[in-house]
């Protein structure tokens, strides 16, 4: 995981997501998930391109089951886009970079 994409856990969720002054994109994923591995490099790329404007984080659903449950994650990968602590967008399943970028822009 690159330095621009942060691991989000139950412990740091409040500080890193809810209290973030900029929008946050959370990637709910698992190591055994093939589509998740396809989306990961896209997330890394976007994190570099949007650094300072949008924060990116990953939530491992196997390790953070309470967060997955809290946000009704039923399929992975799922991207949730937060602004001001509220969910403003959702993408379920693998998607292209342009599609993910459009979702982020809609949520801002």
Automatic annotation (TrEMBL):
The site (Contributes to redox potential value) lies at 34-35
Listed GO MF terms: protein-disulfide reductase activity
What is the annotated signal peptide range for this record? none
Q: Fetch the SUPFAM superfamilies from UniProt.
A: Thioredoxin-like
- InterPro entries with a match to the protein in the record: Thioredoxin, Thioredoxin-like_sf, Thioredoxin_CS, Thioredoxin_domain
Q: Does the keyword Electron transport apply?
A: yes
Is Disulfide bond among this UniProt entry's keywords?
Answer: yes
**Superkingdom of this entry's organism?**
Bacteria
The intrachain disulfides are: 33-36
Output the GO biological process annotations, alphabetical, semicolon-separated: cell redox homeostasis
Q: Which UniProt keywords apply?
A: Disulfide bond, Electron transport, Redox-active center, Transport
Q: Which family does it belong to?
A: Belongs to the thioredoxin family.
Please give the name of this protein.
Answer: Thioredoxin
UniProt organism field: Methylacidimicrobium cyclopophantes
The uppermost taxa in this organism's lineage are: Bacteria, Pseudomonadati, Verrucomicrobiota, Methylacidimicrobium
């Amino acid at each position: 995981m690159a330095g621009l994409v942060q691991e989000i856990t139950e412990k740091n969720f409040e500080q890193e997501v809810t209290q973030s002054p900029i929008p946050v994109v959370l990637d709910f994923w698992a190591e055994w998930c093939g589509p998740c591995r396809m989306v990961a490099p896209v997330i890394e790329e976007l994190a570099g391109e949007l650094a300072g404007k949008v924060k990116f984080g990953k939530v491992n659903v196997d390790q953070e089951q309470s967060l997955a449950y809290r946000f009704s994650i039923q399929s992975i990968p799922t991207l949730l886009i937060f602004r001001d602590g509220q969910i403003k967008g959702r993408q379920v399943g693998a998607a292209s970079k342009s599609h993910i970028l459009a979702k982020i822009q809609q949520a801002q």
